[in-house]
Amino acid sequence: MERKSRLQQRLTRCLRGDLEDSILYVMLSLPMSLFALWYGVDMYKFVHAHQIVYSAAEAAAISGATQVNYSPGTSIGGSGFSPTVNQDMAVYIANQTFEQEQNSLNLNEVVDIQSTNVVFPSSTQVAYTVTVSYTPKGMFAALDILDTFFSHGQITWSPPALTWTITPTSDISGKTV
To answer: What's the Rg (C-alpha) of the chain?
Structure first.
């Protein structure tokens, strides 16, 4: 009988310790898992927004470079074409392409396009520069608000926007550089 009682006490003590450890584990690991999942989803959204804008700008650079390969000019035999980029037409086509991509992808809902610019690094290359502003949501916003609170002692309910510039470059053969 005494042996049965000791065995029961040991088993109860062991189970109670395991139960306490399990409850503590669930109380700590579940919020940390949700925190990591939330951060991962927000990071994916941020990277995806960058990729969408870069793809649209790359399409504009390629379109501007490949569709306007020759400038009208004069030659010995009369009018002809010289193998340089017609800059005015390249700017027009690149801007039109980016605008079409922007409308078809609904970029205004994802990011704020602050400025676009067409640059010609050489006579055979077109670079399309886009400055983008992205207001974080979710985890990035929460971390920015907490950072402002801890560093300045005040809470601002809107996080600062992240701003970056991308510049895909294409040559007149349509290859990105």
So the answer is: 30
